[in-house]
User: What shape does this take?
Amino acid sequence: MPTAIAVTSADLVLPPTDQQTPNAAVLPAPGSQPLASAVADLQLLLDRYGHVIVVCPSSVPTATEQRLHAVRSLLESDRIALVKSELPPLGTAVLARQLRQLSICDFSPGVVASAARLLAHYIYAGAVLGSVARLDRVPVSLKSHLKGWMPGAQFAVLAGPVPQLVKLGPGAEPPAGPEFATQLVLARGQLQTDWPVSALAPRWQVQGVKEAPLPADSPGWWGTGRLVEFAAHLPDLAVLHQLVSSVRRETCHWCRMELIGDRCGFCSAPLPTPPADTGPGTRAGARALTSGGRVP
Assistant: This one.
């Protein structure tokens, strides 16, 4: 039985990569659904799938996050994971789709939930912006902020896995990209530019470009509606499966769910601190436990 993947808004549901990729359940905002109905809907998902992983962007309204915690508390269920994503909205949608892909594999719900932190390292999420004057989620120098007020200025900003900012112009180098094959998803806002397709995709050796509607939260996240958001990602389920399979699995000491990395995806409990250093073997084990499950 696949693990159910849920999201907090419909624009976080990208089209499936193939016929096997399941859809995601969309949880209505608190203002559009009574608490009792939200509890009943999530109970139905638990009854049907056994476990539910809710992908929750860090930019989600406080009321939505409080609703999720309230529903989980009222259900008194340890089978609901709240996975908070620091990625921009389009990157979060990509992450949710990758978890949907993995949900039908031979992974336990705990491994799928904790895999979100691993997969986020392999999503190159950014945007072309007409201004960085109000951008506060990516480090921006004072000089770039001042240039952000100049008419016609455009910037390529990478939010993760390593924040980068480049002012576009003649001879400008694109941000450093992935060293592995990817596909690019882009969502167009009010900015008129083909730079992600004409300049970024060839430089990053992107193997395909897909377009998606701009998530409603993107202008707020990036500080401007004059943008084109993009996210380069691993599209192949076989590659995602190999990536997750290559990481050592642990058992959460608190809820006993299986996990990869250094934190449980369901109860958020960290792995216990490794024992005191008694030799080279212990040091190697400590490094593995504290690596966060990231594959070199």
Observations:
- Residues 59 and 122 are 20 Å apart (CA to CA).
- The longest strand covers residues 227-233.
- Confidence is low (pLDDT under 50) at residues 278-296.
